[in-house]
Automatic annotation (TrEMBL):
Name the UniProt record assigns to this protein: Voltage-gated hydrogen channel 1
Natural source organism: Tribonema minus
Membrane topology according to the record: Multi-pass membrane protein
Keywords linked to the UniProt accession: Cell membrane, Coiled coil, Ion channel, Ion transport, Membrane, Transport, Voltage-gated channel
InterPro entries hit by this protein: Hvcn1 (IPR031846)
Amino acid sequence: MDFTIFFFALELLVLLAAFRRKFLLHLGYMLDLAIVAACLWRELQGGSKELRLLGYCRGWRVVRLVNTLVEQAQERASRAADREAEAQRRAIEVEADRRRLAEALRLEREARKNTETMLLGYKEEAETLREALNIAAMDIAEAAASDLEGDGSDGSASDESSPMHEDKRRGTASKADRLGDDRGDRIFVSEDGSWTSR
């Protein structure tokens, strides 16, 4: 018996055991089975030269092998193209996320800058108001001091014509005015705008 026929028969048995029903449904395996069976029958029967030519039909297996290799290469190329398309899609998503985050960061910086500008304006406004209050407190203190000094003078007509003396004559002076006159209080204004009466 020819060793190659035995080898092909063994190969077909292994394929049949591995693929079972799929083996019988595959056209290529069935053609192999027919060729190997005809060659095996020729060897056993001592057949003619025509059956010996069937041995050359096994050369189609090389064509099938090449075809299988081409199909595998095409499948790998298809999978690689799919992976590349997926990578491009992910890259587009990442770029979109990066742009969105960059825009959010820009808006956040603008909001922070606007907030800092607004706070700086409030700070300057508060300092201006504090200075105005200090000036007003000093003016009030000077006016109160001059009124207190005027009350302690010799009682000239010009002093008595002041609003505070008018109120005293009418008996409508405030309690603070009366207390200030009775005790001889003076108002002192500090640098921070606070004031004390002594």
